[in-house]
């Protein structure tokens, strides 16, 4: 007390005491805030994400899919499609699309990853459905079997996507896109959601382990060099045969014309 009495008349005592009090107050508030934040972060983050997704949906998707995801004359209902379907369609740039009369094509996404995650969280919050997948969650490099994946792909996918995964034509102007260049999570999400003309491959039809094997085969085929020369798109014998006939027959006709001109 004598120490305080001796220095309290100093002109520096008041400012120093105020600074000390403010420091203690700020420190106490920071500790309390940090504790509170840790306690409410999971719930508040999820709630905020869903709210952001609802706002994005109302602004960019509700005109076609309805304010309550009920669908409309030009777009289907999104009730129960799950986060995986939203992540696939929006993450690959297929949605949103201006013309619903044509097949949605893969293009540069309109929304970034955070906005896509928010949209997926909002749709998933209204009804249960397949969950979105992250690339790091798929251990296809360690767990997949490329040989088994190739057999599964030829059995279940090649009739539409071509035996080399390059895509192919379907009926009524539709087509199966190439799977080359697709991210592992996009391939997995396509199998569990069945976008557009593609059927849904549930875990009873193709198990999760087999799905990883298919992904491994696709990635192996994607990185495989063309040891025989030009790949010609790897679209099969039609283009290869056409090129051979065009060059071969054209060459023979040229030689025949040259020989005929020499004979004169």
Question: Could you explain how this protein is built, in words?
Answer:
The structure is a single chain. The chain has 264 residues and is mainly α. The chain has 2 domains: 23-132, Cytochrome c-like domain (Cytochrome Bc1 Complex, Chain D, domain 2), CATH 1.10.760; 133-225, Orthogonal Bundle (Cytochrome Bc1 Complex, Chain D, domain 2), CATH 1.10.760. Helix content is 58%, strand content 2%. It has 11 helices and 2 strands, in the order ααααααααββααα. The chain has helices at residues 2-7, 13-60, 62-65, 82-91, 113-126, 140-143, 146-156, 158-161, 184-193, 208-223, 237-263, and strands at 168-169, 175-176. A two-stranded antiparallel sheet has the order 1-2. Strand 1 and strand 2 (175-176) form a beta hairpin. Helix 2 packs across helix 5 (113-126), helix 4 (82-91) packs across helix 9 and helix 7 crosses helix 10. Mean pLDDT is 83; it is low at 31-42.
